[in-house]
Every structure is written in structure tokens, then in C-alpha cells.
Amino acid sequence: MKYTGKAHTVGANIDTDAIIPARFLVTTDEAQLGANCMEGLEAGWVRRVSPGDVLVAGPNFGCGSSREHAPIAIKGAGIPVVVAHSFARIFYRNGFNMGLVLVEIGDAVERIADGHEIEVDTDAGVIRNLTTGEEIVCRPVPPSMQEILDAGGLVDYVRRRLEAEGRV
Fold first, then answer.
1. Are 47 and 94 within 8 A, CB to CB?
2. Which end of the chain is less enclosed by CB atoms within 10 A, N or C?
3. 147: number of CA atoms within 13 Å, CB side?
4. Torsion of CA 61, 59, 81, 118, to 10 degrees
5. 162, part of any domain
6. Does 164 reside within a domain?
7. pTM of the complete model
8. What is the pLDDT, as a whole number, of residue 66?
9. Is residue 150 in some structural domain?
10. Buried b vs exposed e over 120-129: b needs ≥16 C-beta within 10 Å?
11. What is the pLDDT of residue 67?
12. Transmembrane segments in this chain: where (predicted)?
């Protein structure tokens, strides 16, 4: 799958409270959470984002609580993919479970600046910086994780499997 959009960079150790502060956790509605995405980092941050844009982060993105609201908020903001130096492990799993694509690229993340146009090709394992012409090789999304993403998240993935087996 290919995703093309403007990069929105954030720093290191962005925790789930920065992604979606606790005061907004009165719902799991994707649109409502998305309207407040990154409010803990910068008020009104989401107004700079257009559907399809890419969030680019430093090390340990998504640290903090295990709330699944954080990846839901990012998706609700219209961001389908996050590229980061690295992810906190629980956020990494929650992201895929909620249908959010996550790509780790280590120090190469520093080659993407705020506002660059980038293309993330998760099948080929390549990120193309359309602003600079550079390519960054990354690991493709594993097939088992791609199946979860294709279903829209873990709940829909399990539902499809149970239906296919005639168990629901």
C-alpha cells in the first residue's frame, strides 16, 4: 500500500497524553478524538493536517499509557501512517490493532523535515522523500500485520475470520 502526504514532524518521547490528553477520553469516536489529536503537544495542532498526511516522530513514539485512544485519535485526524525512529511497544501493537500503519526507520527519520512531501510504500519497504528525492529503505509491513490492517483493525479481522469459519 502506498501513502502520500505532507510530513508533520514531532520530537522524541511523545507520550499518549500528548497524543490525546485524558480530558478527551470520554469517547472512542474516531472523529471526536481526531479533532483533538496532539492537543497535549500543541493546541490546534490538528488544524494543520490534511487527510492522508503522514506523522513523523522521533524515538519512543507512543510511550506512556496503554490507551488505544491514541492511535484512534491519529486515524481520526486523517493520518493513515506514522513513520518514527521507534515506537513504544504497547503503542506499536495498539496501532496495528486499531488499523494504523506504523513504520520504524531509526536514525533515517532525521532525513524527513516538517512539510516535506513523502510517499510510504509499505509493500516495497521504501519511503520516498518527494521533496528531496531521497529514498529510505525500511522493513515492509509483515503479511500477518497487513491482514489486520486490510481488515481495518484486529476486531474486524477476528470478525471476518469467525464469519469465514461459520462460527458467527
1. no
2. C
3. 7
4. 150
5. no
6. no
7. 0.94
8. 86
9. no
10. bbbeeeebbb
11. 85
12. none
What range defines the domain where residue 16 resides? 2-140
Residue 168: its pLDDT value, please?
Answer: 82
Identify the CATH number of the domain in which residue 125 sits.
Answer: 3.20.19.10
For the chain, the straight-line distance linking the first and the last C-alpha, in angstroms and rounded, comes to: 30
pLDDT in tens, the chain (168 residues): 999 999 999 999 999 999 999 999 999 999 999 999 999 999 999 999 999 999 999 999 999 988 899 999 999 999 999 999 999 999 999 999 999 999 999 999 999 999 999 999 999 999 999 999 999 999 998 899 999 999 999 999 999 999 999 988
Please give the full DSSP string across the chain, using - where no structure is assigned.
-EEEEEEEE--SS-BHHHHS-GGGTT---HHHHHTTTTTTTSTTGGGG--TT-EEEE-TTBTBS---THHHHHHHHTT--EEEES-B-HHHHHHHHHTT-EEEE-GGGGGG--TT-EEEEETTTTEEEETTT--EEE-PPPPHHHHHHHHHTSHHHHHHHHHHHTT--
Tell me whether residue 112 is in a domain. yes
Q: How many residues does the chain have?
A: 168
Q: Work out how many domains the chain is built from and give that number.
A: 1
